[in-house]
Amino acid sequence: MRKIYILILCLCSSVVFAQSLDYKKASAKPGSNYFEIVNEVRNEIAMKKSATAFSKADIKAEKQFERWAYYWKDRVDAQGNFPSELEGWYNAGLINADGSINFPYTTMSKSSQSLQQWTNVGPQTVPDANGYPNFPQMGRLTNFMRFVKVPTAENVLFVGAPNGGIWKSIDNGNTWVPKLDFVAGIGVTDIKSASTDANNPGTIYVSTGDYDADHIKSIGVLKSTDFGETYQSTGLTFSLADRESTSNLIVIDNNTVIVGTNKYIKKTTDGGATWTNVYTHPYPDAQIGKFHRHGSNIMCADSWGGLMFSSDNGTTWTAIKSEGVSYERHSVTADAATGIFYVQAKSGQISTYNPSATTPALTTLGNPTTNYNPQGAYNMALVVKDGLIISGGVDAINSDNNGGVWYTTLNNAWEDNSSAGSYGHADIHEMGYLDSGYSFWAVNDGGLIYVTYPTKSEEKPTVDYKSDGVIITQLYSVAISPQSEDHKIMGNQDNDGYSLEMKDGTLKWVAALAGDGTCTAIDYNNPSIRYLGAQNGALIRTDTGFANNYDGDVDLTTPTSGAPFVWTLKMNTTTSTTLYGGFAEVYKSTNKGDTWTNLNSGAGQIEYIDTYGNNLFVIGENGGRKSLNDGGAWSTLVEPEASARMNSVTFNQTNANIVYATVRGYVDGSKVFKSTDGGGTWTNISAGLPNILMKQVILKQNQTEEILFLGTELGVYYKVGTDNWLPLGQDLPNVIINDLEINYTVDKLVAGTYGRGLWEISINNSTLGVDEVELEGSIAPSIFPNPVSNGVLNIKLDSATPELDYVMYNVIGGIVKQGKLVMGNNELDVTNVSSGTYVVRMTSGKYTSTQKIIIE
């Protein structure tokens, strides 16, 4: 039953049990407090759980809320005040004060000192399904546009992602290229043109932001006049204070466009230079949108449950229905053949509206959709053709008899051919016509699909996945393996886990079960042992690799009560069977997660863990704590500043008094701090950083000079010694960095992004400007044998070689052996060192030699 339970959890949601508080809108209201909102909603959830059976819809609702809470927790200040979602973008100089893109832009994060290139390391296409019937895909898309060409293999396609920008294909979806990485993290709600002809594409318009999940606000409407290669702001832009949303678009011609905002329907007739308010909503937070057009008739809905209609291409509007305070949008479409509009309310009830009738009115059609779940307004889509109605929510549900009977036709929980419908990833955001017959497109939380029905009555359509190569996966976590730099595991929002390992004789990405993959780990002594966490403390382990074993070998019993939605898992750096879990407190397992012991740190619910050897540092709801004896005793880390709470911490494993921490929020100049007394007092080391969100700081261990890396909401920075912070490398997309790992055996930094997949870059010290001299020739230490098979490693120093300090460490930097080397042959006993790949770093002042060894 475990698998069914997790599959239920993998869907998104909205808080059906917390209708008294619209938490998504609350962040934009003056005086709203994050901590008060979170406590109120969580109390309502707890009451619902204790009073009645928690339904599937409630589980999804809780998940959607916890995603929202996770998004905001690092952004709010110490008092719980909400900033603008676009604060960091403006502070970094990527957008102007009015929300327009800051020209001239050339590329993403770029450093004049660090010239190494970031490389995407995948997956570039959907991972092997691995026996997982409802397998994860590449990630959430919000819209689709196609330009037709002869031959069809040269059709030009566009898709937009809420955190991954715009992607373009010039070969009918065979390959894809990103086109908006400069502001990829701002997201795309819609992309449209008045044309569908690839030979005459016209002007392309883009509505920005994340209209469905409402995690980031809009910077307005962009346009492209070179077939989607470059984009510029139009006259519709928004300042930070506006906190605006823009809806899907109606593009009538190259100069005439309609879009909805929080209060207005806006129209331009001069290509976006100026915009006129053609409809003013009585409420300032109406989030007008879900437009659909047939000829000169246009209908749209708003988040208050109202509907507006125009019969003159959006020049004038009439409110045709108001349902009061429903906090839900309708889904709207029109039958291309008849021009009749179809509207679906949050209850699942379909109504029709015929503009040609003598007295047009909404008319109820059939029965409410069976099992309809739009999760508030997170996923609401509708398409109608020749009497075939397809309603998109969590699943797609269709009817061929005017809503009399409904059938699940795209099933996110599909198991086999006996299941209802065909497999389609959960959470459908938009649908539309494709080709002749009953052929449609749909975008969902897994990507873009083409859906074809042989006949109107067919309930199992053919599903063709089209967005292989659209790299928009939203990572929470990544882990690495020492056996090869290519072995990795990712935990993803909405799309479970991807594990890179050998399958059928080939190294490939394979699917692994999680729901939301919140944390990951690989045993550095045995890479077949892998861990994948799901939301709220759930955890599975495989002892034989996930290949051909997508749901692992063991469903571990963890202390899930009170665990954060996105929780953290760390492995002891020298004893791989020991794990630390961030639950309602920090817990320790010495048997690969089979049993757990509360370490009683006093930190409360855990948000972050860092560990080397027996030194353990944690951050929780009650602040930071440290233990220098593996959790036996704890002391408090002082907050770096009274106005800023820590959100990540790291330390020097050879001197645990040297500690580094990032702080949350947008306080200019207060980003990263250093302590030399174990966290008692701090020095601000933020020089060179813009006022953007900090996510994680890590120290490159075992170096002669201090080398730090920093994941932010806009790429990665690095710092050497007393230098200022600088952007790291070339051409990393501007998206959130949720996790950083150093692979010490190949000297690479691995970055897990939220919206653009997994990336890596060389961090060889010479490329970072570190002042070191490599021992070469006769004075270079000689290491033999390599591989080591008899338990003895020899390191020979020439008479001209200075005495050296050495450190032997594993893939994650954990020290397994250290000491001094003298002239002549030095025999090191490695019989107690596990098999694997290690680094031996030998130093004397600025003179160094770093060599890789294999112990068998």
Key features of this structure:
856 residues, mainly beta, five-stranded mixed sheet, 5 helices, 38% strand, disordered N terminus, Secre_tail, signal
Structure, explained:
The protein is 6% helix and 38% strand. The strands form 17 sheets. Strands 23-24-25-26-27 form a five-stranded mixed β-sheet, with no helix packed on it. A five-stranded mixed β-sheet has the order 60-67-66-63-64, with no helix packed on it. Residues 1-19 have low confidence and may be disordered.
Question: Topology, please?
Answer:
Elements: H1 2-9, H2 23-26, H3 34-51, H4 56-73, H5 87-91, E1 109-110, E2 119-122, E3 143-147, E4 156-161, E5 165-169, E6 177-178, E7 188-193, E8 204-208, E9 221-224, E10 232-233, E11 249-251, E12 257-260, E13 264-268, E14 276-280, E15 289-294, E16 297-301, E17 307-310, E18 318-321, E19 331-334, E20 341-344, E21 350-353, E22 362-365, E23 381-385, E24 388-392, E25 396-399, E26 407-411, E27 422-423, E28 428-433, E29 438-444, E30 447-453, E31 462-465, E32 475-480, E33 488-492, E34 497-503, E35 506-512, E36 519-522, E37 530-533, E38 539-542, E39 554-556, E40 569-571, E41 579-582, E42 586-589, E43 597-598, E44 606-612, E45 615-620, E46 623-627, E47 635-637, E48 646-652, E49 655-663, E50 672-675, E51 683-684, E52 694-699, E53 707-712, E54 715-720, E55 726-727, E56 730-732, E57 736-743, E58 748-754, E59 758-762, E60 773-774, E61 782-784, E62 792-797, E63 804-809, E64 815-821, E65 824-829, E66 836-844, E67 847-855
Parallel strand pairs: 26-27, 60-67
Antiparallel strand pairs: 1-56, 2-59, 3-4, 4-5, 5-6, 7-8, 8-9, 9-10, 11-12, 12-13, 13-14, 15-16, 16-17, 17-18, 19-20, 20-21, 21-22, 23-24, 24-25, 25-26, 28-29, 29-30, 30-31, 32-33, 33-34, 34-35, 36-37, 37-38, 38-39, 40-41, 41-42, 42-43, 44-45, 45-46, 46-47, 48-49, 49-50, 50-51, 52-53, 53-54, ...
